Amino acid sequence: MNEKDNLIKKAKKRDPDAFTELMKLHTKDMYRTAIAILMNDEDAADAMQDTVLACWERLSDLRNPGLFRTWMTRILINKCYDIRRQRVQTVDISEYEEPPADDRGYNPELKEALDLLDEKYRLPIMLFYGLGYKTTEIAEMLHIPRSTVQTRLARGRERLSKYYGIEREQSYDRIQKYI
């Protein structure tokens, strides 16, 4: 049993320290997912906070501890959509705050390119390339067919390759490198 499985087991027994440690391990992934949907740092933080609370409250519902990350991400996506529905006014993209300078994986050029993508392409790309989810997991999280996820990944890569001005064959490697 690895460290994460052990933390999940302890957290399910209502150990707050184990749960806190478990959430810390997933904070960066949660942020990337939330920002891909909400495009606003404050809303992303709210969605993450709501997700942590919901996970704590519903941890006993988790049937398969091996699917914790997928389960948590699905909750986060739902919270992001809830926040977006509650928004009264449209958020201007200029309100988006840059991640801290110590985030070595951050690439402003990629952020700009991803901002140009529709959410239906941006979210699968972030989940697949940025967080390493499989297409079947993404399909499950987004409640869409696996073939739709594959199509959106292909079209998203195509749009990013146009942005970067590179050949389609090179787009996969370039996206993988930056995300």
Tell me what you see in this structure:
By secondary structure, the protein is an all-alpha fold. The chain folds into two domains: 1-90, Rna Polymerase Sigma Factor, Chain: A, CATH 1.10.1740.10; 106-179, Arc Repressor Mutant, subunit A. Helices cover 72% and strands 0% of the residues. Helix 1 (3-12) packs across helix 2 and helix 6 crosses helix 8. The longest helix has 23 residues, at 16-38. Mean pLDDT is 82; it is low at 98-102.
Structural class: mainly alpha
End-to-end separation in angstroms reads 29 Å
CATH architectural grouping of the largest domain: Orthogonal Bundle
Identify the CATH homologous superfamily of the largest domain. Answer: RNA polymerase sigma factor, region 2, helix turn helix motif
Mean pLDDT: 82
What is the β-strand count? 0
Q: Report the helical percentage.
A: over 70%
- Count of all domains: 2
What is the tally of helical segments? Answer: 9
Quick summary:
It is built from nine helices and no strands. With 179 residues, the chain is mainly alpha-helical.
List keywords for this structure.
72% helix; single chain; 179 residues; 2 domains; Arc Repressor Mutant, subunit A; mainly alpha; 9 helices; Rna Polymerase Sigma Factor, Chain: A; 0% strand
